[in-house]
Design brief:
6-stranded mixed β-sheet; 33% helix; alpha/beta; single chain; 314 residues
């Protein structure tokens, strides 16, 4: 165990000819935290994590994982990392269990310890009942889950997942996301790259938005929304004197506007969830009966568009 973040990277820079693929990227990931690198294809996500894992040398910058410096030659230091690449890195003619036993031996596992660990990671990703089946017969989602299992064999302190749900069906995607959530809850530090906004919103405690090789912003979802001045929209369906209700709502702290739209009052607020209790009190004071309340928060797609001037999937 080490004090401080499991991962610290700072000033990462990588150039390919005249193209600056990664330009001064730096962030930290702590135990039990999922940090998301969110950006479109070609933004620099894979190059960044390749430098973090020591697969590609940095032109500048530093990487520390579990208290050890990481570079392209630091074999022992990489033992704290579990890396799951975007492409499935398994032997298709072997079964899942055979693949895992092979990779486990590369990690120095053997005998009962190897058998126990293979069983544990298969259970973690929900493939115990398909352990003896060849990878070539797996669905795309099952291959991705087996890929994750291989990345967990060495009891990593940091799990690095590069776009693990690309090309899989919705059911498999949900299974993968549930696995990541359970690993994070168990205390594992997770670095997760994606261009799917909804995945970042669901999984990540903090998000770094990367575009053109630069980390243009980072923070919690709420911090990123606040950074670009995002506001929540609240719709209160109700019966009664809605004009009086809207007028009272406009006086509430945090409410920027409130309009009677016939069968509801629609509000704009800095934080919609914080005004729910005052809304109920205002409705009671006006004799208004509330039927439903919907809070629509700005999403990361809107944040990305504001920060970069383009759609996340451009």
């Amino acid at each position: 165990m080490t004090d401080g973040p499991v991962l610290t990277c700072d000033g990462l820079l990588k150039r390919y000819g005249d193209r600056l693929a990664v330009d001064g990227v730096g962030f930290t990931v702590s135990e039990g935290e999922c940090y998301g690198l969110l950006g479109p294809n070609g933004a620099g996500k894979t190059t960044t994590i390749s430098m973090i894992c020591g697969l590609v040398p940095c032109d500048a910058g530093s990487v520390w994982v579990a208290g050890r410096s990481i570079n392209a030659r630091s074999v022992a230091a990489k033992a704290a990392i579990g890396y799951v690449p975007q492409e499935v890195a398994l032997y298709p003619e072997l079964s899942a269990a055979e693949n895992l036993r092979f990779f486990g031996r590369l990690y120095g596992l053997s005998g009962a310890e190897l058998a126990r660990r293979v069983g544990e990671v298969l259970e973690t990703v929900g493939l115990t009942d398909r352990a003896g089946d060849r990878i070539e017969g797996y669905s795309g989602g099952m291959k991705r889950r087996a890929n994750i299992a291989a990345g967990l064999l060495n009891h990593p302190r940091l799990l690095v997942l590069d776009e693990p749900t690309v090309g899989v069906d919705p059911q498999s995607r949900n299974s993968i996301l549930e696995t990541v959530e359970s690993l994070r809850s168990a205390g594992l530090a997770v670095l997760y790259t994606t261009h799917y906004m909804e995945e970042a919103e669901r999984l990540c405690d903090r998000i770094g938005i990367i575009d053109g090789g630069k980390l243009v912003a980072e923070g919690t979802r709420r911090q990123l929304v606040d950074l670009v001045g995002g506001r929540d929209r609240v719709r209160v369906a109700a019966d009664g004197d809605l004009a009086a209700f809207a007028q009272r709502c406009r006086a509430l702290p945090g409410v920027e506007s409130a309009e009677d739209v016939g069968d509801a009052v629609e509000l704009v607020a800095a934080d919609g969830r914080r005004v729910l209790r005052p809304l109920i009190e205002a409705a009671d004071a006006c004799g208004v009966e509330m039927w439903s309340v919907e809070v629509a928060e700005p999403d990361l797609e809107a944040v990305f568009l504001s920060l970069t001037g383009r759609e996340l999937r451009d």
